[in-house]
Each structure stands twice: as C-alpha cells, then as structure tokens.
Specification:
Length: 256
C-alpha cells in the first residue's frame, strides 16, 4: 500500500463527514440576526481560511503519524538484524544437526581421541583443549568449572556451535560467561559471580578472542559439570562445511 493510500485512509477515518455543517451554521446565524449581516459576511469570508488551516494541520498530523510509524518500524528492523557476517537462520541450522554421541557403558574405558597437540583434541579445522591449569578451576555447590580453549584454523568462516556431554552420566556440559548461548540450564555462583548456565557455546570466527600469529583463532571459555560427573566428555563442534567430534580424557578434567 502506498503512502498516498495510507494518508487517504487515515484521513477518512479520523475526519467524520461534515455534510455541509459549516454552511448551515452560517445560514442559521444570518436568519436569526439580519443586523449582523456585515459581521456574518466577515465571519463567512474568514471561515474558509480557518477551515483551510484546520485541514492543513490535520494533514500534517496524519502524515506525521504515518511517517513516524514507518520510521519506527525501519529502526526496529535495523536493530533486530542478525550479527554482521552471519546468515539468517545460520545458528538454527547448526543447532538442527544431531549430536553424534558414541555409545559407552559406565564401566567402559573413556574412548579418548588422539590429540593434534599435547593439550588439543580433534583433526580440524576446529580443535578442543583440555582444561587449563588447576588454578583456573572453580568448585561450587553445584559442581566444577574449568577455563578451557577452542582453536580454529584462520580460514574458518561463519558461526561455530559447540556442544558437549558426559557420555557416561549423560549430563550436559554447561557454559557460563562470554560466548555461552542457546537454551538456559540454570544459574550458579561461579568465582563469586552469579552466572547463567547455557547448553551451547557460539563462536564467531570474524571476531576471535585471540589470534596466534595469524595462523589459528583461539577462544577461552568456561565449561562446567554437575557433581557426580565422570569427566569422560564428548564434544561436537559444528560449522559451515564441517563437524568435528572428539572425546576428552576423564583424567584431564579431574581436580587433583
């Protein structure tokens, strides 16, 4: 619908039909008091400009409402746009990929994948790290948290979704703080800060946290498991054109 059509519809709605009311009013005044003919003629001659001004004011008001409404809609659309560099529904497409969880019994050894380096797992283009030194670990009444790392090759494009599970206890690995996203799992106080627990980690390679000599992109994040975990954890990293999976060793996550 055009702006002109919008204006006419709004004008017709806001302005009821007058049915010649101003002219009839002038005639009644003249009939009741002929001595005021000159004044009536003055009023009559003056009534046209006044009516015109009123119509112009009404036009300005309606136009302002219509234009202002469109500006508000355009502003809302602009600010609700997805982050730069991501495609509409990109994250939802990654979330739709099923978790490729291995079948492991509670008494089975943890099927840890060979690492590409001393502390990293996976064959690329994304790699997961074992927890950092124990002084980066946090224990709460809910469970344990660790500061961890993800590496990616510098040519990775698009969002990368990270999800993880304890494959013996079937507990989800939760993420708190920076880069955490997706469904909420609960809340906890981690390192004296109240934090929301999320089931996903969402990384944008166009905005890496760290860059190691331009060869790989690196993110530090905090992941946690509820008390009773086995620390035999399965990790899945989904990105554009790849799915990387690995199992982290239970020993690497246990506190001394």
């Amino acid at each position: 619908m055009s702006l002109r059509t919008d204006f006419h519809a709004a004008y017709d709605e806001l302005t009821p039909p007058m049915n010649g009311l101003p002219e009839r009013l002038v005639q009644v005044v003249l009939a009741e008091n002929p001595s005021r003919g000159r004044a009536a003629r003055s009023i009559s001659s003056f009534s046209v400009p006044v009516a015109l001004v009123a119509v112009l004011l009404l036009i300005a008001m309606v136009a302002g409402i219509l234009i202002g409404g469109r500006l508000i809609r355009d502003w809302s659309t602009f600010h609700s746009a997805e982050p730069a560099g991501s495609l509409p529904g990109e994250l939802a497409q990654l979330e739709a990929r099923p978790l490729l969880l291995p079948s492991v019994q509670s008494e089975d050894p943890c099927p840890t994948a060979p690492g590409s380096a001393i502390y990293f797992f996976g064959s690329g283009p994304a790699y997961g790290a074992a927890p950092l030194a124990t002084y980066y670990s946090y224990r709460t009444g809910w469970g344990d948290y660790w500061k961890m790392e993800i590496l990616m090759d510098a040519d990775v494009n698009g969002l990368v979704l990270v999800r993880a599970r304890d494959i013996r206890t079937h507990q989800p690995v939760v993420f708190v703080g920076q880069y955490s996203g997706g469904p909420e799992f609960g809340t906890d106080t981690v390192n004296k800060v109240v934090a929301r627990q999320h089931l996903e980690l969402v990384l944008d390679p166009s905005h890496p946290q760290l860059n190691e000599a331009g060869l790989q992109l690196m993110w530090e994040f905090v992941g946690g498991l509820a008390s009773g975990y086995s620390a035999c954890t399965f990790w899945q990293l989904d990105g554009s054109g790849f799915t990387e999976t690995y199992v982290a060793s239970g020993q690497s996550m246990n506190r001394p």
